[in-house]
């Protein structure tokens, strides 16, 4: 082998950044952490509204924060938000029905605003009875699903989340962890499943959007890496070609000029 030739190296491995982005475990961890903090923030804000309007009552000895809420409420809501936000895109993938309706952050933010408005209405709007309020909030929650989701999987998961969350809340109130004023649906308010349904749809949309964003980052990172590989291979081929053929020498001064 000639001294000037260079041996072509083997396939290069992805850099640490691209490897971390394309890793499924890291992808899930990033989305889970973001969803957890979003759930904690919404729980603090919305639960504060419910407590200020005396909709929910906690024992005085469990109030331990500036937000006048029990310490366990934000972590529980954050965990539930992370699970719901990760579950929605997972179900979409397994059903083979990718959600493509209104997939932009502006739509997601409007969905969050409508959800906060529904929760605000449950605490501040006065109706003659709870049945009228429950029917109104049910219509608003279904309208939220129709406006920002419209998927069968989203509606089914919303119903399941509302049922399971209402059941857990019934058990908590039954065991005296906290209570609702004027309960009309066993130990809770009859409109509570509507809030849980709207919350499930909202966190599902956020989870879907995060999954789409990280997928786009993953695709772009792979394309950039492939482009770098192509450029490096082309450079190596050019160097090998120059080494094998040699640099042409100038022959302009082979013959001397005779007078």
TrEMBL record:
The primary site where this protein sits is endoplasmic reticulum
InterPro entries named among the record's database cross-references: INSIG_fam
Q: Where are the transmembrane segments?
A: 28-49, 69-88, 131-148, 155-174, 186-206
Molecular function (GO) terms for this protein are:
lipid binding
Can you say where in the cell this protein is located?
Endoplasmic reticulum membrane
UniProt entry keywords in alphabetical sequence: Cholesterol metabolism, Endoplasmic reticulum, Lipid metabolism, Lipid-binding, Membrane, Steroid metabolism, Sterol metabolism, Transmembrane, Transmembrane helix
Its membrane topology: Multi-pass membrane protein
- GO BP annotations listed: cellular response to insulin stimulus; cholesterol biosynthetic process; SREBP signaling pathway; SREBP-SCAP complex retention in endoplasmic reticulum
Gene Ontology cellular-component terms listed: SREBP-SCAP-Insig complex
Q: Which residues form the signal peptide?
A: none
Q: What interactions and quaternary structure are annotated? A: Interacts with SCAP; interaction is direct and only takes place in the presence of sterols; it prevents interaction between SCAP and the coat protein complex II (COPII). Associates with the SCAP-SREBP complex (composed of SCAP and SREBF1/SREBP1 or SREBF2/SREBP2); association is mediated via its interaction with SCAP and only takes place in the presence of sterols. Interacts with RNF139. Interacts with RNF145.
Q: What does this protein do?
A: Mediates feedback control of cholesterol synthesis.
Give the family from UniProt. Belongs to the INSIG family.
UniProt name for this protein = Insulin-induced gene protein
Q: Which organism is it from?
A: Tursiops truncatus (Atlantic bottle-nosed dolphin)
- Report which gene this protein is encoded by: INSIG2
